[in-house]
UniProtKB/TrEMBL annotation:
Residue ranges occupied by any Flavodoxin-like domain in the UniProt entry: 249-388
A GO term, aspect molecular function: electron transfer activity
Family: In the N-terminal section; belongs to the zinc metallo-hydrolase group 3 family.
Organism: Pectinatus cerevisiiphilus
PROSITE patterns, per the entry: FLAVODOXIN_LIKE
Source species, domain of life: Bacteria
InterPro entries with a match to the protein in the record: Flavodoxin/NO_synth, Flavoprotein-like_sf, Metallo-B-lactamas, ODP_dom, RibonucZ/Hydroxyglut_hydro, Rubredoxin-O_OxRdtase
Record-linked PANTHER family: ANAEROBIC NITRIC OXIDE REDUCTASE FLAVORUBREDOXIN
Name this protein carries in UniProt: Flavorubredoxin
């Protein structure tokens, strides 16, 4: 396991998690990486670490450059265990190293993770000289936990961004100009949608902090390092954090006997007839983390559930729970509920209530059809959408 030099004297010493397919419910079809960076200067500095189950791999990569006992400083940009989990293993080799974490939340919480070690809190505007280079700390609270921060090296113009601008993307290549661009940007979008969509305000604040610094490389905590497409990823973060949507629709549903599915097809076709491109997703066949990625940039959402046992289908309930958590609560997003039922038909109203709780504006009153939809009932749905 070798380190990869990303700039003279600065090495990627991270871990590639080829087989990761589920990251707390987010389906990670392309695996991931936990990126750590070693800076060789008067003070040898490690920026972030890796999940504890990969502690041997990170130690090997560090050892390919220096004896880990020589590490002076460890910067913990984020406490979550995928970035900090190998701290105890590394600290056993370099017990005198100092760990830097964001104030107040990193400093307050890190002992609960790793016990009594040499921690030092840093805040906005603080900087640390490591020899020829300086590290400046930029707190970015809630991007993605209260302790999250960026670390910027002005001499190298590198931003160590941790979760910001990251992607779950396993690759032996380290840079954005070495991998397929559209795949990379899709994974960056999927990451933003599934991890950061609810923190648009905080993402905007983080972007404004970057306006005053010159960044030539964004060394992320997951996936690929940005060096050739920095303006594109920063522009997309601006759009995503401001909730920019296109006039497109996402139709999400589950069905037991295809009645709700017939409604979903009719709705999808009706959108298309209104020149609103639409995509339809059966929750049995599609993962909620892929659907949420579509929803991030689309203005319209229709959600359908038949009634089962006086309520919503569990797949739809799970999707709505995920949506409510991640939703940026942006009133410009438009939604409606639909579904088939046999007698009570409670599910459709419940879906509508959940869409309201997720912050959507109800665009059409809920559409309820008893049993199998007739031709006339389906035509009425089309009319409703075309005439709205
Ligand atoms: C297991 C089961 C439970 C159901 N429970 C209810 C119910 O509590 N209330 C109701 O209105 N309809 C209930 N129904 C009827 C369905 O909602 C109805 O058949 C509907 O048309 C199914 O739509 P679908 O074809 O999209 O699955 C139930 C159906 C099944 C199979």
């Amino acid at each position: 396991m070798q380190a990869v030099e990303i700039k003279k004297g600065i090495y990627w010493v991270g871990v590639i998690d080829w087989n990761l397919r589920n990251f707390h419910g987010y389906q990670t079809g392309r695996g991931s990486s936990y990126n750590a960076y070693l800076i060789i200067d008067e003070k040898i500095t490690l920026i972030d670490t890796a999940k504890v189950n990969f502690k041997d791999e990170i130690m090997e990569r560090i050892s390919s450059i220096i004896d880990p006992a020589k590490i002076d400083y460890i910067i913990c940009n984020h406490l979550e265990q995928d970035h900090s989990g190998s701290i105890p293993t590394i600290m056993k080799k370099c017990p005198n190293a100092q760990i830097f974490t964001c104030m107040p939340n990193g400093l307050k919480n890190i002992p609960k993770f790793y016990g009594d070690l040499a921690y030092k809190g840093v805040k906005a505007g603080d900087s640390l000289s490591i020899g020829k280079r300086t590290l400046q700390f930029i707190p970015v609270p809630m991007l993605h936990w209260p302790d999250s921060m960026f670390t910027y090296c002005p001499e190298e113009k590198i931003l160590f961004s941790n979760d910001g601008f990251g992607q779950h993307f396993a690759s032996t290549e380290r840079f954005d100009d070495q991998v397929d661009f559209s795949t990379l940007m899709y994974e960056a979008k999927k990451y933003y949608a599934n991890i950061l969509m609810l923190y648009g305000r905080q993402a905007k604040t983080a972007l404004s902090a970057l306006k005053d610094i010159d960044v030539k490389m964004i060394a992320t905590g997951h996936g690929i390092i940005w060096r050739s497409h920095i303006s594109e990823i920063v522009e997309n973060y601006r759009k995503w954090s401001e909730g920019e949507t296109s006039d497109e629709a996402v139709v999400v549903y589950d069905t037991m006997w295809h009645s709700t599915e017939k409604m979903a097809r009719t709705i999808t076709e009706a959108f298309a007839r209104r020149n609103i491109p639409a995509k339809m997703y059966d929750l049995k066949e599609n993962h909620i983390s892929d659907i949420i990625t579509e929803i991030l940039t689309k203005k319209y959402l229709a959600v359908g559930s038949p009634t089962i046992n006086n309520t919503i289908m569990p797949t739809v309930a799970s999707f709505l729970c995920y949506l409510r958590g991640l939703s940026p609560k942006d009133k410009n997003r438009l939604a409606f509920a639909f579904g088939s039922y046999g007698w009570g038909g409670q599910s459709i109203g419940e879906v509508e209530d959940e869409l309201k709780k997720a912050g959507f504006t109800i665009w059409l009153d809920k559409i309820r059809i008893k049993n199998i939809p007739s031709k006339e009932e389906l035509e009425n749905i089309t009319k409703l959408i075309l005439e709205k």
